[in-house]
Specification:
InterPro entries: DNA-bd_dom_put_sf, MerR-type_HTH_dom. It comes from Nocardiopsis terrae. By secondary structure, the protein is mainly alpha-helical. The protein has one domain: Multidrug-efflux Transporter Regulator, Chain: A, Domain 2. About 60% of the residues lie in helices and about 5% in strands. The protein is built from five helices and three strands; from the N terminus they run αβααββαα. Strands 1-3-2 form a three-stranded antiparallel sheet. Helix 4 crosses helix 5. The N and C termini lie far apart (about 55 Å).
Length: about 110
């Protein structure tokens, strides 16, 4: 039996709120596309108690970026690698900014 959603879950970008059908419809793609992203290890959906794939808003944003790249002609494996590298670059920039703005040691 599933738990009722709480207010915190509605605000949680990582809460797996969307079924594969919902996610595919929102992205204008197919469930097979989402499964391919999972096989490429770009996104790994959580599973409901019944074993069904469930996606978060964060995962849907990643999938939307992948779809954008694929629609531009990029192979799905290359699109996944590009997204991973983009994410790593953003994380490195964030860490660099934190280090630059940190108080210097005495």
């Amino acid at each position: 039996m599933s738990r009722p959603a709480t207010g915190d879950q509605f605000d949680d970008d990582d809460y797996p709120a969307y079924t594969v059908g919902n996610a595919a419809e929102m992205l204008g793609t197919t469930p097979a596309f989402l499964r391919a992203l999972g096989e490429a290890r770009l996104i790994e959906p959580l599973r409901s108690e019944g074993g069904h794939r469930r996606y978060s808003r964060y995962q849907l944003r990643i999938a939307a970026r992948a779809r954008e790249l694929v629609d531009e002609g990029t192979q799905i494996e290359a699109a996944c690698r590009i997204i991973i590298l983009e994410d790593q670059l953003e994380e490195a920039k964030r860490i660099n900014e934190e280090l630059r703005t940190a108080d210097p040691p005495d």
